[in-house]
């Protein structure tokens, strides 16, 4: 005779392996190390942060529950090697870890765009974790989980979105204090309409920072068109 705990355990085991998805689409990777590669983007729904410069607020709510098998099949149908799992904040859904692992097992080149507010320890080491450290100008500086920095490897990347000269100086100090550039690539991006891109580039060159300047290629090509 089954006990209540055994029955509840069996029910939990029977739950479908699924994630809430905002969109899956093929485009060019617009930033970070794989910029320019045709890439399938899997955008998960939901995010606990509310950054001032967020350009994907439409992913905060809604979405559609999709079985991981169906997600995997749609990714495969696009026929490219690069996959980026993004959000929202993808790690706010625990089953994201299983999707990442399955994509790696299938031989995809996988990157994860994460806010840095959630522990990245469980992410498959084959994934390139693109960790977004929140500057004061983001309004979410207090959410940075600094212990994540100790987990970074050369396979990972760290991104700062710079909203002002004060943000730049803050980010410069964080990079130096934690020697992030000695762990992995560090990327500085200008926040759209808040910092002139040429101005940020000049600051980096003047200070000879060991970071990479980047702009969002997809924004240059397609502005804010959804699914691009």
From TrEMBL:
<keyword id="KW-0460">Magnesium</keyword>
<feature type="binding site">
    <location>
        <position position="47"/>
    </location>
    <ligand>
        <name>[4Fe-4S] cluster</name>
    </ligand>
</feature>
<keyword id="KW-0004">4Fe-4S</keyword>
<protein>
    <recommendedName>
        <fullName>7-carboxy-7-deazaguanine synthase</fullName>
        <ecNumber>4.3.99.3</ecNumber>
    </recommendedName>
</protein>
<keyword id="KW-0408">Iron</keyword>
<comment type="pathway">
    <text>Purine metabolism; 7-cyano-7-deazaguanine biosynthesis.</text>
</comment>
<feature type="binding site">
    <location>
        <position position="88"/>
    </location>
    <ligand>
        <name>S-adenosyl-L-methionine</name>
    </ligand>
</feature>
<dbReference type="InterPro" id="IPR024924">
    <property type="entry name" value="7-CO-7-deazaguanine_synth-like"/>
</dbReference>
<dbReference type="InterPro" id="IPR058240">
    <property type="entry name" value="rSAM_sf"/>
</dbReference>
<keyword id="KW-0411">Iron-sulfur</keyword>
<keyword id="KW-0456">Lyase</keyword>
<comment type="function">
    <text>Catalyzes the complex heterocyclic radical-mediated conversion of 6-carboxy-5,6,7,8-tetrahydropterin (CPH4) to 7-carboxy-7-deazaguanine (CDG), a step common to the biosynthetic pathways of all 7-deazapurine-containing compounds.</text>
</comment>
<dbReference type="InterPro" id="IPR013785">
    <property type="entry name" value="Aldolase_TIM"/>
</dbReference>
<dbReference type="InterPro" id="IPR027621">
    <property type="entry name" value="rSAM_QueE_gams"/>
</dbReference>
<feature type="binding site">
    <location>
        <begin position="28"/>
        <end position="30"/>
    </location>
    <ligand>
        <name>substrate</name>
    </ligand>
</feature>
<feature type="binding site">
    <location>
        <position position="86"/>
    </location>
    <ligand>
        <name>substrate</name>
    </ligand>
</feature>
<comment type="subunit">
    <text>Homodimer.</text>
</comment>
<dbReference type="InterPro" id="IPR007197">
    <property type="entry name" value="rSAM"/>
</dbReference>
<feature type="binding site">
    <location>
        <position position="43"/>
    </location>
    <ligand>
        <name>substrate</name>
    </ligand>
</feature>
<comment type="similarity">
    <text>Belongs to the radical SAM superfamily. 7-carboxy-7-deazaguanine synthase family.</text>
</comment>
<dbReference type="Pfam" id="PF04055">
    <property type="entry name" value="Radical_SAM"/>
</dbReference>
<feature type="binding site">
    <location>
        <position position="51"/>
    </location>
    <ligand>
        <name>[4Fe-4S] cluster</name>
    </ligand>
</feature>
<feature type="binding site">
    <location>
        <position position="54"/>
    </location>
    <ligand>
        <name>[4Fe-4S] cluster</name>
    </ligand>
</feature>
<keyword id="KW-0671">Queuosine biosynthesis</keyword>
<keyword id="KW-0479">Metal-binding</keyword>
<dbReference type="GO" id="GO:0016829">
    <property type="term" value="F:lyase activity"/>
</dbReference>
<feature type="binding site">
    <location>
        <position position="56"/>
    </location>
    <ligand>
        <name>Mg(2+)</name>
    </ligand>
</feature>
<keyword id="KW-0949">S-adenosyl-L-methionine</keyword>
<feature type="domain" description="Radical SAM core">
    <location>
        <begin position="34"/>
        <end position="228"/>
    </location>
</feature>
<feature type="binding site">
    <location>
        <begin position="53"/>
        <end position="55"/>
    </location>
    <ligand>
        <name>S-adenosyl-L-methionine</name>
    </ligand>
</feature>
């Amino acid at each position: 005779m089954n006990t209540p705990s055994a029955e509840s355990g069996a029910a939990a085991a029977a739950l479908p392996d699924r994630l809430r998805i905002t969109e899956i689409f093929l485009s060019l990777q617009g930033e970070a190390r794989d910029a320019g590669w045709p890439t399938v983007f899997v955008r998960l729904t939901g995010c606990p942060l509310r950054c001032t410069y967020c350009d994907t607020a439409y992913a905060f709510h809604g979405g559609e529950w999709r079985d991981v098998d169906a997600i995997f099949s749609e990714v495969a149908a696009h026929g490219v090697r690069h996959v980026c799992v993004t959000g929202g904040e993808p790690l706010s859904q625990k089953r994201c870890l299983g999707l990442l692992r399955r994509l790696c097992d299938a031989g995809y080149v996988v990157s994860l765009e994460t806010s840095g507010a959630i522990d990245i320890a469980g992410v498959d080491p084959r994934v390139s974790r693109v960790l977004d450290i929140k500057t004061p100008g983001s309004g979410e500086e207090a959410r940075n989980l600094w212990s994540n920095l100790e987990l970074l490897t050369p396979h990972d990347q760290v991104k700062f979105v710079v909203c002002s000269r004060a943000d730049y100086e803050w980010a410069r100090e964080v990079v130096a204090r934690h020697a992030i550039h000695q762990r992995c690539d560090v990327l500085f991006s200008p926040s759209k309409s808040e910092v002139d891109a040429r101005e940020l580039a000049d600051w980096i060159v003047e200070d000879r920072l060991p970071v990479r300047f980047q702009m969002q290629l997809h924004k240059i090509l397609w502005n804010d068109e959804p699914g691009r």
